[in-house]
């Protein structure tokens, strides 16, 4: 399957997945639910075996997201993947962000080292110098806490694995080309989320066990 060419097709076909275009880029959530070729692709042993090693055992596919940043798409601000709105907090997960197009130093994912071991207090993101930086320019400003930035440039087909708690973001896409990636999110098999209000295994977030 040629994923890079298939992105447009996924958007057309996504019935159970959600498509959002709120940052002049587009995100497609959980296309694997309605596309068997995609659910097969993300169960590739090259991905799964890394997830198993890092998460110490069998893993489940939790969610997938296409991040499609056309030329001019704005930054994705610094964040941890902690699903604040859903109240999921900190839980073991490993994400594989797979480049579908070239992602260069100026539009790839940027990570802040040593941030993966705890949830950052949300007030940190409300500090005034950081908010002023965000207002001053459309660029991705320095992160709201001290840390070394690593920019992970990738060629199509390459991927980076990261703990969802690792602070990350991406600058605006100032290139003339699309910068798309697919992130595949793994959790330990059988993981039970703490909050009873959370329904992570609904239709859209169907658990697919990958041995
Ligand atoms: O692809 C991007 O620019 C952002 C990706 C991201 O934030 C994520 O996968 O959690």
Could you outline the blueprint of secondary structure elements for this entry?
Elements: H1 3-13, E1 18-20, E2 26-29, H2 36-42, H3 45-55, E3 59-69, E4 76-79, E5 94-99, E6 109-112, H4 128-136, E7 149-152, E8 159-163, E9 168-170, E10 179-188, E11 208-210
Antiparallel strand pairs: 1-2, 2-3, 3-10, 3-11, 4-9, 5-8, 5-10, 6-7, 6-9
2-oxoglutaric acid is lined by residues 67, 69, 76, 81, 97, 109, 168, 170, 181, 183.
Q: Could you walk me through the main structural features you see in this protein, from its secondary elements to its overall organization?
A:
The protein is an alpha+beta fold. The chain has one domain (3-190): q2cbj1_9rhob like domain (Jelly Rolls, Sandwich), CATH 2.60.120. The chain is built from four helices and eleven strands, in the order αββααββββαβββββ. It has helices spanning 3-13, 36-42, 45-55, 128-136, and strands spanning 18-20, 26-29, 59-69, 76-79, 94-99, 109-112, 149-152, 159-163, 168-170, 179-188, 208-210. The strands form two sheets. Strands 1, 2, 3, 5, 8, 10 and 11 form a seven-stranded antiparallel β-sheet that branches. It has a four-stranded antiparallel β-sheet with strand order 4-9-6-7, with no helix packed on it. A hairpin with a 5-residue loop joins β1 (18-20) and β2. The longest helix is centred in the first third of the chain and has 11 residues, at 3-13. The two termini are 21 Å apart. Bound molecules: 2-oxoglutaric acid. 2-oxoglutaric acid (AKG) binds at residues 67, 69, 76, 81, 97, 109, 168, 170, 181, 183.
């Amino acid at each position: 399957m040629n994923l890079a060419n298939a992105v447009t097709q996924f958007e057309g076909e996504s019935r159970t997945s959600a498509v959002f275009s709120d940052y002049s880029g587009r995100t497609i959530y959980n296309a694997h639910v309605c596309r068997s070729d995609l659910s097969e692709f993300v169960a590739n042993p090259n991905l799964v075996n890394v997830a198993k090693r890092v998460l110490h055992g069998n893993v489940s596919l939790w969610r997938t997201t296409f991040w499609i940043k056309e030329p001019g798409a704005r930054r994705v601000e610094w964040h941890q993947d902690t699903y604040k709105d859903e109240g999921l907090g900190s839980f073991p997960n490993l994400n594989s962000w797979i480049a579908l197009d070239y992602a260069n130093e100026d539009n790839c994912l940027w990570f802040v080292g040593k941030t993966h071991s705890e949830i950052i207090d949300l007030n940190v993101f409300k500090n005034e110098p950081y908010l002023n930086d965000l207002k001053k320019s459309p660029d991705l400003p320095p992160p709201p806490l001290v840390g070394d930035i690593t920019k992970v440039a990738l060629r199509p087909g390459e991927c980076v694995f990261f703990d969802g708690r690792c602070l990350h973001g991406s600058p605006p896409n100032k290139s003339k080309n699309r910068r798309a990636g697919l992130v595949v999110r793994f959790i330990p098999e059988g993981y039970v989320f703490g909050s009873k209000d959370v329904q992570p295994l609904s239709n859209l977030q169907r658990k697919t066990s990958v041995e």
